[in-house]
């Protein structure tokens, strides 16, 4: 049973007060809070079996290696990868994207080739491709977006051509909450022989992910947005592609045999993991996956979908003067992300005011500068929800925004 | 109620709602654009400099209450003053806003501008308060006329 109050008890930080008010944490698209179980897993590693992995014959090293690889298994199963050796540890989604751009991109993107993106990409799924395209004289195209913040899928067939080598799309937009039909994009890409990359940074934490059903060639995501520690993320690549990719970083751990002249590479996935890996945080992420599995990702998605409906209604009822709420109004294609702008009150002032009420929101361009500009604003306020947020917190947010607008408009409190 | 008054003092709010010298001037001799890309704040500042005096100035732009009121108060403070005075004010203002422990600033010189000293307790908002002043510096010194706080 999905019991939010019980879940909240697992998160020590949620009982914190900010300026004397209970913390209302609504910046989950930036990073999630961590349950006691994940924090304990980190402490347990450092207190009981801290050792380097894959090379020691001693007891601690073997235990660390087992737990480290067990965490990889957990993550692989979580996204339904056919095998754990297709899951490469990274620092975060950004590193995964850069790894693909350098390793796969250098060998597979040529002059005149086309890369198709969406207009709602995070900078991390835009800038690496811009730079690759510059190096290769390749072309970047964008799928148009409709007024309601969804992709215009009717235009996709014309945009994917025989020159398209990659379609790279965010599964759920961090700025609008839009959930994109990445499976359909993948089918269309494959029909033309192109690859499909899914940026799962915002979707993997919030809904069931099945790479085999999505039939995606690449998937990237970050651990810290899904209850795990910062500094750990994962990259999934289909076997026939990963097998052909050259290592991105060279050094220890990633080699099989080394002479003074040359080296041969270790098996998958270690050939992409040079140097001592982030052992503690991998294990922490494994623990976060356990926590999410116990709740059930279908239940997490249902909870957030309900919360999204509730918030959409609340904002509609409040009918705040001069306020634009961006993104789709159908909770089926929207995650719990609420970006908005008010005509005359700047997002930073709103953010500072809300902070004084204990409400943590993000203000700015959310690392999606071109998108935010295309909305015709310089910045937005973004409230983003997770599995521990409640309808009561939505109420506090809507009341807070209402009060803030009054404060900045006529000075009354 | 939420103890916001140290940041949003009544005078700040007043300048935010009714910014002074908001617009353009005739025959500007100097101008500059300032950006705060992370917040999306933007300001265009025009000056008329004559015989070492700021004889007229005005600004337009978009920004938060802090950046707008700081620009408005700056223009009010500088009109008719010497360039040397402007430079000294900038220095004192910068010291007040980016206050390091043990640093002191010239409180007498700043006068009304001291109202913004609460900003120094909000590190994320310091750039908002200093944007207009950096833009002024650029306009006076003709350094490619575009400043960015990043």
UniProtKB/TrEMBL annotation, chain B:
GO molecular function list: iron ion binding; iron-sulfur cluster binding
Pfam family, one: NifU_N
Matching CDD domains: IscU_like (cd06664)
SUPFAM superfamilies in the record: SufE/NifU (SSF82649)
Signal peptide bounds: none
The NIF system FeS cluster assembly NifU N-terminal domain, residue ranges: 8-128
GO biological process, one term: iron-sulfur cluster assembly
Record-linked NCBIfam families: SUF_scaf_2 (TIGR01994)
Cross-referenced PANTHER family: IRON-SULFUR CLUSTER ASSEMBLY ENZYME NIFU HOMOLOG
Name listed for the protein in its UniProt record: NIF system FeS cluster assembly NifU N-terminal domain-containing protein
Species annotation: marine metagenome
């Amino acid at each position: 049973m999905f019991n939010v109050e019980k879940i909240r008890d697992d998160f020590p930080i949620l009982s914190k007060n900010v300026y004397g008010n209970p913390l209302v944490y609504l910046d989950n698209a930036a990073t999630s809070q961590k349950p006691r179980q994940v924090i304990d897993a980190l402490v347990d590693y450092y207190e009981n079996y801290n050792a380097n992995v894959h090379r020691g014959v001693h007891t601690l090293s073997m235990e660390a290696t087992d737990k480290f690889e067990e965490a990889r298994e957990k993550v692989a199963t979580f996204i339904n990868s056919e095998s754990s050796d297709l899951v490469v540890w990274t620092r975060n989604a950004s590193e995964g994207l850069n790894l693909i751009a350098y390793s796969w991109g250098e060998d597979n993107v040529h002059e005149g080739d086309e890369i198709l993106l969406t207009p709602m990409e995070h900078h991390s799924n835009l800038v690496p491709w811009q730079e690759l395209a510059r190096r290769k004289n390749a072309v970047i195209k964008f799928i148009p977006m409709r007024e309601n913040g969804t992709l215009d899928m009717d235009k996709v067939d014309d945009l994917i051509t025989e020159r398209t080598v990659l379609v790279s799309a965010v599964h759920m937009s961090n700025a609008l909450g839009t959930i994109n039909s990445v499976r359909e994009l993948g089918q269309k890409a494959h029909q033309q022989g192109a690859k499909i990359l899914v940026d799962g940074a915002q979707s993997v934490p919030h809904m069931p992910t099945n790479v085999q059903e999505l039939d995606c060639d690449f998937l990237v995501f970050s651990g810290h947005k899904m209850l795990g520690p910062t500094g750990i993320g994962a990259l999934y690549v289909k076997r026939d592609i990963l097998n052909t990719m050259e290592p991105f970083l060279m050094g220890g751990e990633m080699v099989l045999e080394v002479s003074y002249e040359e080296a041969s590479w270790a098996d998958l996935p270690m050939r992409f993991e040079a140097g001592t890996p982030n052992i503690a945080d991998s294990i922490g992420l494994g623990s976060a996956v356990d926590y999410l599995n116990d709740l059930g990702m279908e239940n997490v998605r249902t909870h957030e979908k309900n919360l999204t409906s509730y918030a959409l209604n609340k904002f509609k009822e409040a009918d705040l003067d001069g306020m634009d709420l961006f993104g789709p109004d159908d909770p089926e294609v929207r995650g719990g992300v609420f970006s908005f702008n008010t005509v005359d009150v700047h997002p930073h002032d709103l953010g500072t005011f809300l902070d004084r009420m204990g409400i943590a929101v993000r203000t700015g361009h959310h690392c999606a500068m071109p998108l935010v500009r295309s909305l015709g604003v310089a910045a937005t306020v973004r409230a983003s929800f997770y599995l521990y947020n409640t309808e009561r917190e939505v109420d506090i947010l809507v009341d807070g925004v209402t009060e803030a607008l009054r404060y900045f408009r006529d000075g009354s409190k | 109620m939420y103890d916001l008054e140290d940041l949003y003092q009544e005078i700040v709010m007043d300048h935010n709602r009714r910014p002074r010298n908001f617009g353009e001037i005739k025959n500007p001799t100097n101008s500059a654009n300032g950006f705060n890309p992370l917040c999306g704040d933007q300001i265009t500042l025009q000056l008329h400099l004559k015989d070492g005096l700021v004889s007229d100035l005005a600004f337009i732009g978009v920004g938060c209450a802090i950046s707008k009121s700081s620009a408005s108060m700056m223009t009010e403070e500088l009109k008719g003053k010497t360039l040397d005075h402007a430079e000294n004010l900038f220095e004192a203002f910068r010291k007040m806003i980016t206050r390091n422990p043990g640093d002191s600033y010239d409180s007498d010189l700043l006068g009304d501008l001291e109202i913004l000293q609460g900003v120094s307790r909000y590190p994320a908002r310091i750039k908002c308060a200093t944007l207009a002043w950096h833009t002024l510096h650029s306009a006076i010194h003709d350094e490619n006329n575009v400043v960015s706080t990043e």
